[in-house]
Amino acid sequence: MAELTGNCLIGQSGGPTAVINASVAGAVSEALNHSCIEEIYGCVNGVLGILNEDFIDLAAESQQTIRGLKHTPGAALGTCRYKLKKQQDFDRVLEVFKAHNIRYFFYAGGNDSQDTADKISKLAQQQGYELRVIGIPKTIDNDLPITDHTPGYGSVVKYICTTVKELACDNEAMGQHDLVSILEVMGRSAGWIAAGAALAKRRDHPYDAPHLIYLPEVPFTTEKFVEDVRRVLKREKYCLIVVGEGLVDPDGNYVSTSSAQTDAFGHSQLGGAGDYLKDLVEKHLGIKARSAKLGIPQRAAAHCASKADVDEAFMAGAAAVKAAVSGVTDKMVTLIRAEADHYVCETGLADLSDIANGVKKLPREWVNEDGVSMNHQFVRYATPLIQGESTPPYDHGVPMFARLDKVPVDKVLQPYET
Amino acid sequence: MAELTGNCLIGQSGGPTAVINASVAGAVSEALNHSCIEEIYGCVNGVLGILNEDFIDLAAESQQTIRGLKHTPGAALGTCRYKLKKQQDFDRVLEVFKAHNIRYFFYAGGNDSQDTADKISKLAQQQGYELRVIGIPKTIDNDLPITDHTPGYGSVVKYICTTVKELACDNEAMGQHDLVSILEVMGRSAGWIAAGAALAKRRDHPYDAPHLIYLPEVPFTTEKFVEDVRRVLKREKYCLIVVGEGLVDPDGNYVSTSSAQTDAFGHSQLGGAGDYLKDLVEKHLGIKARSAKLGIPQRAAAHCASKADVDEAFMAGAAAVKAAVSGVTDKMVTLIRAEADHYVCETGLADLSDIANGVKKLPREWVNEDGVSMNHQFVRYATPLIQGESTPPYDHGVPMFARLDKVPVDKVLQPYET
Fold first, then answer.
1. Partner of B171 at 20 to 30 A CA spacing, among B83, B219, B332, B412?
2. What are phi and psi of B259, to 5 degrees?
3. Using the beta-carbon criterion (under 8 Å), do B166 and A399 form an inter-chain contact?
């Protein structure tokens, strides 16, 4: 494969995570090692930044800032949920790439974002414009296929497990009478995040909190729920419940939908499963319940990030650049669990189209028969992903996050109407 | 003052905090230094443990466990919200104290708990039973009078500021269109906790998040709220709001009460102010809003505790023992801000009755004229309280908290019907 010389563009898309900036840090750091990459640009707010020709010069950022990205939540380049729809949008992307001699495009995101990357890649091939496109996996949802797991997942699980353990200490202290405590966590269509709470249990202590985990994969009925809570309260002084926001009834309808709004990809915006369960407890059991909804903060909790996750996110960003420079295109970096006695994570590559069109479901056989707890196979899978503590530097008692200078790249084209 | 020889009893009361166990650790550690204190008992679930003669032997716990309490949230001895009502209850307390030769009683809690301690102390004096009673301040609400601040407050503020800074990174990343993000925090009758979120702003960056802070002290109107949000969104891409759960309208009614339940002290159980504001934004501004409700986890967040707070909680526990041994009784330990160039915290003593009957209000003059931000006086007051990071040890990726062995002390009396 002949060396391809030109500029590279890095973008972030979809919901931010605690570690998506670590992937950008990994990509930038690696790009600096390769002379075939001339300029290192970032696109502001994902594909919207491409359409608007809104690029910043990442090489102009200080090394300190790039290093700081490893501990900074959110998406430092800005992200978007904009979906490229019309052919005109795709043509514009190529026009902008050509205008800035973009020959390497790295896009960190989930299924929808990898679909976008795939379409851009295919169009460039059709038009004979040499472009190498590599996706970087990102999503707290852990639902990308082929890759063993996804950067962002380990950190949200670590934060939730930490919260569960702390909440359990608080609940246990109040042990005068029945107490039901509900923690609502993210997870639109898959229970990966809620399931992760199982790691809060000590080994060989199946009765530790969380006592009940409700997953979108297991159809919810009020009858079983009330029975589950009763069973726990016969044994324990309190009942700590973790519920995924996307809980569905046996007909597949969300048990609670806070509004009828949908996002640009047609997904329902959820919320309120925790309060829904709280009401059920109070109504059917006459017991006081309390709920907390971690909301967006859970995917941004860099102060409680998993070091394994941060390191793998960085590695995935670097691996994307290495693959592209070596001639690969139209792939996403995957994480592979090496065959070894202890956990070792390596990177691989998968076709973007396979990523875009697949979903990794939580294996039903990893859920115990009771439907509200996870078995050892899940624990073995997920435990390595939350190991090690990555904490940001603190200044005056609060975390100090990196901010990009965002030196703009001169525009050379006419504005585009999105 | 003649030396008083006998056993000591330590209890915890009211809502747990991230650092109330550090106070127990401080009291136990100090008690071991004094030969006049023979046995070191803990009462299980506050005054209920006294009524039920439910004591544990704290001296039997390993040093490792006592040290671990410094990082363990909840209330390791168990807590309660039981209020001693009838004379019979008080008589029982003295009966139990006499039966176990309890001569030192240390009670960590808020106003209601200090009131209980005061009444026990007064009754012992009346009956000529020599007993030294010292309260240890505890409450995330920071509303105890006389003391400069209260252990537990600094840690909840540090956690909320950390969450605000992380949420701001996430919100900023989504900067395509107006976004309103709401974080509901605790604070039944005072805005100390919500006000603390102001420390998330960098110095000299008044436009940093949180953009709007709604306090129970400032009567809430929909008109001003809508205007406030509009003003912020003219200037910023997103609007991050922190709201105290006890927000009231100009008539003094809670804007949102999730249920009509009240606790044993007659306090309303609140919740839902965040969702209430979310609905207002969507209804009046037609803008998508997201809310998170930190709930109980915020007062249990030992993984993000303030080192200053942990150290002061420990110091307050030790100071209680020192005071009692030196002959003091019927007082609560206070924290005093020493007159010095830099922040130095010392301990003092105040009458239990003065603590029980007072409330420290958030000074209205520390709130800016806009009613939704705090001035430099508040920042100067609160900043020292969140300094330093205290983190628990981790095991397999999750925090490891201390658990008491709880070796029971033999009961010598007949059971008591509470």
1. B219
2. -155, 165
3. yes
Per-residue pLDDT tens over the stretch A101-145: 999 999 999 999 999 999 999 999 999 999 999 999 999 999 999
Instruction: Round to whole Å and give the CA distance between B125 and B146.
Output: 24
Task: Locate the DSSP E strands across B126-178.
Answer: 132-137
Residues of B in contact with A312 (CB under 8 A): none
Chains A, B: CB pairs < 8 Å? 199
pLDDT band at residue A64 under the 50/70/90 scheme: very high
Closest in A48, A78, A398 to B165, CB measured? A398
Cα–Cα distances in angstroms (integers) from residue A82 to residues A1, B6, B169, B336, in the given order: 34, 72, 19, 54
Integer Rg of chain A from CA: 22
The total of other beta-carbon atoms located within 10 Å of residue B129's CB is 13
Extract the tokens encoding A151: 């950067």
Q: Which of A141, A143, A228, A311 is catalytic?
A: A141
A199 and chain B: CB distance < 8 Å anywhere? Answer: yes
Q: Please give the Cα distance from B32 to B45 (Å, whole number).
A: 23
Q: What are residue A29's phi and psi, to 5 degrees?
A: -60, -40
What pLDDT sits at residue B418?
77
**How many of the other CB atoms lie within 10 Å of CB of A177?**
11
What token pair was written down for A12?
A: 């972030």
Give the C-alpha separation, A112 to A190, whole Å.
16
Separation CA A295–CA A70 (nearest Å): 22
Parts of chain B with a pLDDT under 70:
1-2, 176, 257-271
Residue A396 to chain B, least CA–CA distance (Å):
6
Question: What pTM did the predictor assign?
Answer: 0.96
Contacts of B168 in chain A (CB under 8 A): 74
Decide if A181 and B296 are in contact by the 8 Å CB cutoff: yes
Q: What letter does residue B371 receive in the DSSP assignment? A: S
Q: Which residues contact A341 (CB under 8 A, 6 or more apart)?
A: none
d(CA B118, CA B130): 14
> Which residues does B372 contact at the CB level (< 8 Å), separation at least 6?
B211, B212, B213, B214, B218, B228
For residues A107 and A89, give the distance between their C-alpha atoms in angstroms, rounded to a whole number: 17
Q: Is the peptide bond before B210 cis (omega within 30 degrees of 0)?
A: yes
A52 near B CB under 8 A = no
Residues B170, A73: C-beta atoms closer than 8 Å: yes
What is the complex's ipTM, to 2 decimals?
0.96
**Residue found by looking up tokens 């030769």 in the block:** B101
A165 touches chain B (CB under 8 A): yes
Name B175's Cβ contacts closer than 8 Å, sequence gap at least 6: A45, A78, B237, B238
Parallel, antiparallel, or unpaired for β A102-109 and B132-137?
unpaired
Q: B149: distance to nearest CA of chain A, Å?
A: 17
The tokens describing B293, both together, are: 């409700």
The two three-digit tokens of residue A188, written as one number: 């639109």
Per-residue pLDDT, averaged over A16-35, amounts to 98
Q: Where are the beta strands (DSSP E) in B312-365?
A: 331-337, 345-351
To the nearest whole Å, the CA of B395 is away from the closest chain A CA by 9
Q: At what angle do helices B153-173 and B307-325 cross, to 10 degrees?
A: 170
Distance CA A321, CA A339 (A): 25
Amino acid A377 reads Q
Does residue A308 contact residue A154 with C-beta atoms inside 8 Å?
yes
Nearest of A242, A146, A93, A126 to residue A135 by alpha carbon:
A146
The pLDDT value given to residue B260 = 39
Q: What is the CA radius of gyration of chain B?
A: 22
Nearest residue to A168 via CA among B302, B60, B287: B302
Size (chain B), residues = 418
Q: Select the residue of B73, B293, B303 nearest A292 (Cβ to Cβ).
A: B293
What is the reported pLDDT for B5?
A: 98
